[in-house]
Amino acid sequence: MLDFGFDKIALIGAVALIVIGPEKLPKVARTLGHLFGKAQRYVADVKAEVNRSIELDELRKMKDQFQDAARDVSQTVQREVQAAGSAVESEWREAADAWSGGSPATATEALSTPVPEYRPPKKNWRLKRGATPLWYKQRHGVRTRAQSGAARVARFRPPGLGPRR
């Protein structure tokens, strides 16, 4: 930027005072200050926009690199899975042929065992209640011991009344 010393600024101020006049000088100085502030804000906005576009380009490049790496990994995994699947299939066919001595279809039928039908498990309420931790039962007021009605009344009777007769 331009190098203005105190002496140059004083010279410019004196010339402006003579040319513009003392009545209009404050108004002109205020207008110049506003224009200078707008110019600074505009330059700062342009710098910020340039920085954002640079960062956006870098992020796009990183995104493309990650996508390429993910695509390569996916292709490698697919190839390995296909190779393993074909190896297992070929071993299965060889074993089925050797075991049955015939076609692979009869060997597969012979190796397959009947699968039992699914039955949902029986619900056992007591087992569920017993599996609940004691601290949880105490916190939520679950009774863990059976108590008769008379015993409960006696337990919660205010002190000093004594037993009823």
TrEMBL record:
It is found in: Cell membrane; Membrane. Residues 95-124, 140-165 are annotated as: Disordered. It holds the Pfam family TatA_B_E. Its main location: membrane. InterPro entries: TatA/B/E, TatB. Part of the twin-arginine translocation (Tat) system that transports large folded proteins containing a characteristic twin-arginine motif in their signal peptide across membranes. Together with TatC, TatB is part of a receptor directly interacting with Tat signal peptides. TatB may form an oligomeric binding site that transiently accommodates folded Tat precursor proteins before their translocation. Belongs to the TatB family. This is Sec-independent protein translocase protein TatB. It comes from Rubrivivax benzoatilyticus.
